[in-house]
Amino acid sequence: MLYTTGQRSRAGSSRHRGEVVTELGPEEVRWFYKEDKRTWKPFVGHDSLQIELTYRKLCELNPGKASEQDEWEELGGSGGDSEGVEGQKGQTEASVSKEVAGPAEEIDVDSIDIGVEAVCVRGGLYEVDVKEKESYPVYWNQQERIPVMRGQWFTDGTWLPLEEEDSDLIELEHLSRFRGHQMKDTFETEAVTQQWTARMVSWGKSIHSLKLSRSHVDWHSVDEVYLYSDATTSKIARTVTQKLGFSKASSSGTRLHRGYVEEAAPEDMPPAATHIVFVVHGIGQKMDQGRIIRNTSMMRDAARKMEEKHFSDRTTEHVEFLPVEWRSKLSLDGDTVDSITPDKVRGLRDMLNSSAMDIMYYTSPLYRDEITRGLTKELNRLYTLFCSRNPEFEEKGKVSIVSHSLGCVITFDIMTGWDPVRFHHQEAPDAMETEQRRRGCEEQRLLEELHLTRMRLRDLEDQFQGLKTSSSRTSPPLKFKVENFFCMGSPLAVFLALRGIRPGNNGTQDHILPRSICQRLLNIFHPTDPVAYRLEPLILKHYSNISPVQIHWYNTSSPTPYDQIRPTLLNPLKESVSVSDSESLPSPCTSPPQNRRHYGESITNLGKASIMGAASIGKGIGGIFFSRFSRSSGQVGGTEEEPSDSEGGICETEGAAIAEEGGVAEAEEKMEDKVEDKREGSAVELDRRIDFELREGLVESRYWSAVTSHTAYWCSHDIALFLLTFMYGPNTPNETTEDNLDS
């Protein structure tokens, strides 16, 4: 995470030298959270300080909490030496439990009715309820709360906190026994004390001891504190090792430290978010609720690693990712589809109903508006909430959208305001001429009047639509302007093609998505993703023969900027292979990989890829299996005297096929015309590339990748670096312009 840590080590702190033992300061206490249910993770210094101050304010609201320490001093828990303490262990433990449990009950029931405000943590994405010691997200719903705990005593080496109940008992006992004792104030005294403590530890003697529920703690000095397990196996091991001459501490003891290894500093916090990214899911959210939250978390974690690696100098900028979950709030048909689903192979049918059925819902004129309204409302809600919590963002911040699968189509339609009803009126053919030929005079007259009436009605509808459009311009559906629109595994090109979008002669994205709506459109896909399609050939047709831009490997040093990568031609084999030659096609298992300098992450290693995701939208997988992408060294628009290698390969192959049909002379003439047409068509180039392709893994099975690639974008470090590259912009104006990937 990018921020100035400002962490201060406690090794040289005055807390350890020249002071007496007192309560821990707020900067020495560290709060933790357990998000994955396995490991406690520390909050950053700023967050921990805010939580600790709120916790102390909460304790002040309880009148019994202030006198708790005084009662402990009167308890006589100061103990004394180990011989005198042994007889008081049971009484001390019971008294400690009573004193700690009593005020805790009073806090929960009586005094905390006043309450304190929740503490905003982790860059504003979460809040901490100090009373319940739970954390919860701000911008999305999550059923399971994240537990948090207050750490005072920590294990040596790992610096993980002890369980809060044991930590509180040890802290109270430590203060009752050693409050006011002088800490080490000089290095000479420290050296002498360490020698004496080492002897005490080796002899197995302690100056104080405390019995816990499943373990006990021995104090060999003020700073030498060890935790021992009271399990039977630990006792046996401790007895055997001590008889062999080993000390008690070295055999089974764990050294404890009071206070965290680093002091919490107020400046230890991330910078304010300057760019937010809304992550929109596709199909299948109903089947696996909360999946978009986990996917966004994986993308956020990958982006944090790439920030530390490639953008460590951007200390004043910060990109934040927010999941957009639009499916669960829709009612659609209720349970009608479930009621008509047969019982046989019910599991498979339920999976299809909760995943692929979303496509049918969106193509239905009955439910399409509900889906677009739901996503629009959720996007605006998140943006409004974020601006309310970050007032400066509305003026200075930027917004981008990352959409996956069907979410790309829905987001595109929201931004452009595409209306299928209006499209039908504009494009539907009129069958009046055919009907007039079959009717009599009277019927023809009535049909003409009907036709005029329909034309008048259409004009009125156009006028009404024009009024709606003008009003929508003043009040667009989204409350923010989209800076970048990233499509991942997107079928958007198919939807646009079926809506009548055809290639033109203008090499800008305005042919598909005007820049007044979105500054940059980027289409990301894996070569074997059966759901993804290219967008560039819908703008300029000859780009179907130009390879997509390959996304840099995240470990590539000094990569070429994407806007400076030259277009290269594909070498398709489908034009030169006849039916009789189809057997000579290389098998995807035997065909060699592409000759590239770097290979990307293997989809099979990315993990957490759902098998059903790749089959959500129908596309002929066989066409992908038997297609080869190979980059040519030629350049689009080469000179006529020196044609590129790829063009020469096309001419030779097609010429051979034509020569078999009608002679060498005709073949040469036709191929010259074909090459000339190709050069004329490729004269216009895109001002900025749109299609970006992930690199295939070096040892990656294409069959398995076709199943898993559609859902494996989220944890890819290549994609995380790609997104940050366009959102952060160029790092320095003097970046290298050499093509380091193909050198």
UniProtKB/TrEMBL annotation:
GO terms for molecular function: metal ion binding; phospholipase activity. Residues 576-588 have a biased composition (Low complexity). Residues 1-20, 66-102, 576-599, 662-682 are annotated as: Disordered. PROSITE patterns: DDHD. GO terms for cellular component: cytoplasm. It holds the Pfam family DDHD. InterPro entries: DDHD_dom, PA-PLA1. Residues 667-682 have a biased composition (Basic and acidic residues). Residues 478-729 form the DDHD domain. Residues 1-12 have a biased composition (Polar residues). Belongs to the PA-PLA1 family. PANTHER family: PA-PL1 PHOSPHOLIPASE FAMILY, PHOSPHOLIPASE DDHD1. This is DDHD domain-containing protein. It comes from Astyanax mexicanus (Blind cave fish).
